Amino acid sequence: MNEQLHTLEHAQQTAIDLAIQFGPKLVVALLILAAGYYVGRWMGRVADSMLQKLGLDETLRLLLIRIVRILVLALFLVMALQNLGVQLLPLIAGLGVAGAGVALAMQGVLGNLAAGLTIIFTRPFKVGEYVSIVDVEGAVEEIKLFNTVLSHPDRSRIVIPNRKIVGEILHNFGALRQLDVTVGVAYDTDIKVALAVIEDLLRAHPSILHEPEPVIRVLTLAHSSVTIAIRPWTRVDDYYDASSDITQAVLETFRERGIHIPFPQREVRLLDRT
Q1: Domain 176-257 falls in which CATH fold?
Q2: How far apart are CA 216 and CA 214, in angstroms?
Q3: Which of 6, 90, 154, 214 could form a disulfide with 232 if both were Cys (CB 3.0 to 4.6 A apart)?
């Protein structure tokens, strides 16, 4: 019993000695870290105001702000560790060995990070543009370090790992898309009249852009009709509604103007060989 009391008293005395020895240093280290946090936020705001004046892309600007904050916090962390008397060289060596092991275990994650940095700095697309990649398409909603988020026209969200984007064939539509509507007219139709009717329809539609100029051309001479290609430009958000509106308007207007849209037909002749 006396031995246990002695051990307890010894532990208490040791704790008091450690508190007296390291307590003030620990408090100072915590204060240094707290100061680093607030200084990092302040430096981030300063960097943000400077980068906004340069007109940098939002994704790149946010990345640079985070880097500034992390660097400031890392500097204050080093100061806090030095205040505690921690030897930094052995610590850095240990972190290097541990980092190598973590890198091997997280190759996919680091690959996404490297690809994200590549996307941010090379900027093959920007937020708000409409892209098609990896058999999916949508408007770019967010570009993060590890993944890119697309907003699909059906109001779903597509999350693509960045390593699946870098090195792939990317179709960037930008902020505009070109409709691809086709209609067939009978061979005896006055083509100039049909083209003029379509041009008037496009000019009257509010979602169809006048610049770039819509493309209206005779596309092919099919078996039962002359195929006309209608390819105007519209904003990405208006693409599907405009495509439906133009198709319906062409059908209704052709009926009103007496322009015949033929259906496929074949002529079958029966020969009597008896």
Answers
A1: Alpha-Beta Plaits (3.30.70)
A2: 6
A3: 214
